[in-house]
């Protein structure tokens, strides 16, 4: 009966109820550094796994686990959502941050800080791999169009993949599900699935930072435009599709996008 009553609750009343779940100092600017650090650290881990898997395999000569490499970024994202999704929203991706902002779940004033943190985190991951294995050894961690795949076709693939990723993220967050089990499994599962079937076409990046930072470390940036334009265009399409499917943005989506910092009601 409780579930039915909440389902029939007016939208404004339901939003007020959701807002009571946020600690009083949720919007206190003094906590922004925690969110920025969370995005930096989370993106570092994501790029370390996504680019580092192929780098380690190539450097060690052990390719026994190559079939699992496309799954690794999805598993990493799943873990990150679990351990810090409530801190920053676990965007880890400029395309996702921009999608939340366009969707009006995330304030534009905070977008630059998140994107800078993501770029720095990805850059540090690429530099770590270069330190461990050498600059040239980072090349296998780059995302490039597959054999006989044109840059234009790779661009289209990145647009489609990112549109579906953003739809998955926005869709699971619209009911306060991105922070928790459902969102972690859905988002991580989608990234793993996309990698399994689309990595041979475009690398299944869906994330400008994941592609740009290894490319800059290697000094090979000729095709980075594919992995900037594709995810950004896909993110915009994903937001449009979310408006078609769900309508106006929700308070629950805002909570998911911005995090709660796990601060209890005492403000400690």
The number of domains: 1
> Which range does the strand content fall in?
under 5%
The overall pLDDT average reads 86
Order of helices and strands: HHHHHHHHHHH
CATH superfamily: Glycerol uptake facilitator protein
Protein name: Major intrinsic protein
Transmembrane segments: 40-59, 79-102, 114-134, 154-172, 184-204, 224-245
Organism: Chlorobaculum parvum
Pfam families: MIP
What does this structure look like?
There is one protein chain. By secondary structure, this protein is an all-alpha fold. It has one domain: Up-down Bundle (Glycerol uptake facilitator protein), CATH 1.20.1080.10. Helices cover 67% and strands 0% of the residues. The protein has helices at residues 2-7, 11-19, 32-60, 72-88, 94-102, 111-133, 151-173, 181-202, 208-218, 224-246, 251-258. The radius of gyration is 19 Å and the shape is globular. Residues 1-7, 14-25 and 264-268 have low confidence and may be disordered. It holds the Pfam family MIP. It is found in: Membrane. GO terms for molecular function: channel activity.
